[in-house]
Amino acid sequence: MKYDQGNPEELREKFWKAMAASPYVMLQLDADPDTAAPMTAQLDKDASSAIWFFTSRDNRFAEMGGATATFASKGHDVFARFHGMLVEETDRARLDKQWNNFVEAWFPGGKDSPNLLFLRMDLGDASIWAGEMGVIGTAKMALGMDVTDDVKGGYTNTKL
Length: 160
What we know:
The protein has helices at about 10-20, 90-100, 100-105, 135-140, and strands at about 1-5, 25-30, 30-40, 50-55, 65-70, 80-90, 115-130, 150-160. A hairpin with a 5-residue loop joins strand 5 (about 65-70) and strand 6. The protein is built from 4 helices and 8 strands; from the N terminus they run E-H-E-E-E-E-E-H-H-E-H-E.
């Protein structure tokens, strides 16, 4: 696949749309690469500079600080690596807004569970890749044919 310099605004839009469809990332603390673990990002369409995570106070992410997340979309046509700062979110209205049945399944003690830790990741730099294989490209790949010149994509380094 050949990645050309893409339009940052278009690629950010594709990224957010793909994240909304499948908000799962591998998250790790920058200070300790061994902390990498799958997490579900809680998104807010009106807050594109932050995402939220529910975890427990005894989890490795309770250390907070600089973090990196990696993302692959459901259709494998958008990939991203982004950096940010994990801090405790103390806004109860935000917690109420992000709370849902899927979160409650992990925290049966509810929103007031003493072990619940609600984190906000203030987003910074990101690298985003997007490309489309298409029907012909997929068929050629299935047949073992060379697709390196058929598949095009965009790439950008940007701020989220």
